Amino acid sequence: MIQLKQMKFKYFYQQFFSHISIILVAFLLLSLLFAHYIQNLVYQNKADELISYGKAILADMKGSPFSTNQIINQYSSVLVARNMSFSMFDQEGTIYAVGKHAPTINGLSESEWKEITNGKTLIVNADFKRFGQEGVTFVVLPFIDNGKFGGGIILTSPISGSSAMIRQINKILMYTILIALGVSFLQSWFLSRVHVKRIKRLREATSLVSAGNYNVKVHAANFDEIGELANDFNHMVNKLNAYMEEIESLENRRRQFMSDVSHELRTPLTTISGVIEGLKNNMIPDKDKERGINLVSQEAKRLIRLVNENLDYDKIRSNQIQLYREDIQVLEVLEIIQEQLNIQAEEKNNQILVEASPDVYVNADYDRLLQILINITKNSIQFTTDGTIWLRGRYEQNAAIIEVEDTGIGIEPSEVENIWHRFYKAEISRTSNPYGEFGLGLSIVKQLVLLHNGDINVFSEKGKGTKFVIKIPFPTNAKN
């Protein structure tokens, strides 16, 4: 099947011809209406002048003592000077008194004669041959005497002078139209170029965006739809730029996550593989076999913990965790954590202190609250040696405040926000810290606190310790 190539009609020409066509139609209509108005005005003035003379003649003939011939002669000179002529006719339509160049009544139609006999004045503007003459204006006035039709008078005047004036007016009007069309032609061309240029800038910017450039901007204004479109385009580009930056950030984090996961899994898997190969090939002495098996067990538990933490993190991020909130005594929870982690703290010569009033309660999920505080406290133990870790609880503005403070190595201010990232590793921890990582714990902590509609902040000073402050508000229907 042959496909015909679609012809293109540039938007510039569409705008230009639409402007010109609208202006042309408007000018033509206005000129026709104006010419018609002027023509009617001229004819009406001529007819009014003829009617006034006709009424004067009829009035004089009705009430004057002079004879009809005297009256006709009297008015003939006046009317001839005005380039007018008249005739009088009786009730039968017979002409009985005429002036110079007098018209006849033979050209009247039956309907026109009926109007005259009924006492109506007849006005005829004729540019064609009628009443024995051509190009004249006729006025026929009936003569009514005591309610009876007694004839009338016909007055005519050539319209050649009026036609010449109308032609002159039309000529001037035509010149005016041509000048106006020339001005409108230039104005339409200029305006069309302006609009097309603005649209062309948008098209070029759109092409750049489609090519992957999201930093393009176009000049925007609010005085018309094209300006609003430019504003929307800039807003769209800003959104796209933000999305692309977010996608790039997510891609970098994905690559970093894969690298971190690979690193985290490689160490325990290498250890497990090495120990199993040693046991399999009897390369490990009997006295070290039990220690090797314990090492495999620890590394396997480490892998399980890593997988579970990843699963927990994904569940929390996707809102698949359901909280069972209740009022929990803060002092009891802190003492449980102190008891569970006291042995780990003593291994690094740390001391865990609890400071909380028995009447301080927090509305939270018990298991998740323990998970939050254990992760933070373990983190404090991990980065503190020969120091103190405080666990505190108090009220503040309809919210429970729980603090975990240590005297550890602290965190650089520029790295405080990064500790919430998945598998984040601080530079200092890689060289001076035996653990060398923050892991997934703090990422999970952040998400769990947010699930409680709470907030968590970190205050740290390098070499002087770190303080985690958790704020969990009470629900509006909860009682303190």
Key attributes of the depicted protein:
480 residues, alpha+beta, Beta-Lactamase, Helix Hairpins, Heat Shock Protein 90, five-stranded antiparallel sheet, five-stranded mixed sheet, 10 helices, disordered N terminus
Tell me the CATH superfamily of the largest domain.
PAS domain
Which fold name is given in CATH as the topology of the largest domain? Beta-Lactamase
For the secondary structure, the number of strands is 14
Question: Which regions are unreliable across 5 or more consecutive residues at pLDDT < 50?
Answer: 1-7, 426-439
Q: How would a crystallographer describe the biggest sheet?
A: 5 strands, antiparallel
How much helix, percentage-wise, in residues? 55-70%
Average pLDDT figure: 76
N→C terminal distance: 81 Å
Tally of helical runs = 10
Q: Quickly count the domains.
A: 3
CATH first level of the largest domain: Alpha Beta
Instruction: Spell out the helices and strands N to C.
Output: HHEEHEEEEEHHHEHEEHEEHHEE
Please indicate the percent range of residues in DSSP E strands (runs of 2 or more): 15-25%
Overall SS class: alpha+beta
Shape descriptor reads rod-shaped
Examine the secondary-structure arrangement and name the CATH architecture of the largest domain. Answer: 2-Layer Sandwich
User: Which value, in Å, is the CA radius of gyration?
Assistant: 54 Å
Q: Biggest sheet: strands side by side, in what order?
A: 2-1-7-6-3
